[in-house]
């Protein structure tokens, strides 16, 4: 079947920058969907019906043209910025429309154009979109020496990004903001983040960041087991060494969902999501002050998409998507807690539970006798002063249960 839909990337140079194939598709189209800015770039001789994106945004109009398109009665085009498959509408359409129904004709993306201007190697940089996403999500990609290309939500985004970088110790970072890349009105601004003086720029802009820090500061590490002081907490925190061991058992994979039950300050769910951009997590916490700590920590560590469920497990688990892994950091003695988590766990999923008190340990031992699994005892000691000498101070031992669901 020939494709009824053509998704066309268009740059700031408009019609003149399109390939022959893209122009032919537009000339033959019966309908063209796109943003007002993109539709205005088309010459008057394009006779197709022009359909601006609705607000709030929806692709229902494109899908409504599908039946006629599949019967060959009409051809449809969609206009997108640059490369439609780079944080663009192409990805949205590809989830709804079969591959043989759609073709994509890109032009260089704004990311490619920025890399060309700066002589940056594309495969070595990280692209982050803040369009429809919290600005805090950028922090998960901010490391000393990293090069980021940030797709702005609007003209105030560069100032917001500069303030965020400065607040997190990355004030010396070099920011380059490009406005109207590839067009006659292209503009470039170069400043340090902590010296940014432009409250607003053109709404259509992109930010390139070369991450730099003050001496002695490198940002949080990539590995699980962030320093305890990376979190705001009230003492209800899985400590760094135990957290690292716990993560070895949780073993996150891209796209998997974690339930962090009795989340405390949210450290397990946060580090799960930092493991890979596609990892998802739900933190379940009943204590109101700790719920606020989770909200603060998830933003500070770059994973604002961490979902917070305010309630007490196991009742609060009702209606949640089935998890690939469950971590129970507190409440294992609650009636039915372990069984409720186990029953909702996906086949092949992992249940990890930590216990400190004898009663909690007994609950894990009894549950293991019925369902199987492994028990591990974690003992951590740290050297501390004792008079004029040092001695080992033993932390409370942790009993860890690891069970995989057949």
Write the layout of secondary structure elements.
Blueprint: E1 5-10, H1 20-28, E2 31-34, H2 36-39, E3 49-52, H3 60-64, H4 66-70, E4 76-81, H5 89-94, E5 102-105, H6 110-118, E6 126-129, E7 147-151, H7 157-167, E8 174-179, E9 187-192, E10 205-210, H8 240-250, E11 257-261, H9 267-274, E12 280-285, H10 288-300, E13 307-310, E14 325-328, H11 337-344, E15 350-355, H12 358-371, E16 374-378, E17 381-386, E18 389-394, E19 398-404
Parallel strand pairs: 1-4, 1-5, 2-3, 2-4, 6-7, 11-12, 11-14, 12-13, 14-15
Antiparallel strand pairs: 7-10, 8-9, 8-10, 15-19, 16-19, 17-18
List keywords for this structure.
single chain; 406 residues; seven-stranded mixed sheet; five-stranded parallel sheet; 12 helices; 19 strands; 25% helix
């Amino acid at each position: 079947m020939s494709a009824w839909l053509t998704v066309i990337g268009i740059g700031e140079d408009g019609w003149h920058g399109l390939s022959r194939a893209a122009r032919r598709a537009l000339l033959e189209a019966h309908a063209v969907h796109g943003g007002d800015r993109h539709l205005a770039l088309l010459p008057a001789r394009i006779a197709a019906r022009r359909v601006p994106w609705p607000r709030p945004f929806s692709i229902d109009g494109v899908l409504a043209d599908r039946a006629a398109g599949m019967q060959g009665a009409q051809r449809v085009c969609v206009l997108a910025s640059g490369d439609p498959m780079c944080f663009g509408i192409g990805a949205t359409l590809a989830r709804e429309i079969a591959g043989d129904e759609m073709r994509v004709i890109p032009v260089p993306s704004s990311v490619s154009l920025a890399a060309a201007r700066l002589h940056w190697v594309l495969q070595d940089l990280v692209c982050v979109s803040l369009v429809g996403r919290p600005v805090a999500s950028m922090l998960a990609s901010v490391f000393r020496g990293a090069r980021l290309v940030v797709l702005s939500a609007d003209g105030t985004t560069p100032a917001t990004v500069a303030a965020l970088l400065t607040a997190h110790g990355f004030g010396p970072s070099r920011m380059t903001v490009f406005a109207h890349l590839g067009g006659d009105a292209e503009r470039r601004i170069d400043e340090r983040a902590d010296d940014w003086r432009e409250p607003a720029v053109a709404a259509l802009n992109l930010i390139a960041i070369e991450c730099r820090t003050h001496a002695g500061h490198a940002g949080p590490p990539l590995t699980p087991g962030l320093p305890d002081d990376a979190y705001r907490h009230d003492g209800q925190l899985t400590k760094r060494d135990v957290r690292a061991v716990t993560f070895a058992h949780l073993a996150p994979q891209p796209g998997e969902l974690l339930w962090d039950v009795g989340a405390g300050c949210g450290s397990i769910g946060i580090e799960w999501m930092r493991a890979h951009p596609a990892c998802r997590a739900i933190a379940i916490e009943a204590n109101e002050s700790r719920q606020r700590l989770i909200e603060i920590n998830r933003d500070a560590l770059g994973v604002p998409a961490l979902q917070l469920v305010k309630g007490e497990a196991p009742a609060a688990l009702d209606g949640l998507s089935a998890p690939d892994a469950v971590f129970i950091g507190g409440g294992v003695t609650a009636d039915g807690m372990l069984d409720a988590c186990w029953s909702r766990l996906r086949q092949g999923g992992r249940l990890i539970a930590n216990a400190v008190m004898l009663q909690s340990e007994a609950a894990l031992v009894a549950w293991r006798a019925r369902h199987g699994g492994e028990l591990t005892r974690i003992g951590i000691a740290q050297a501390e002063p004792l008079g004029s000498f040092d001695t080992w101070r033993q932390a409370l031992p942790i009993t860890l249960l690891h069970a995989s669901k057949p």
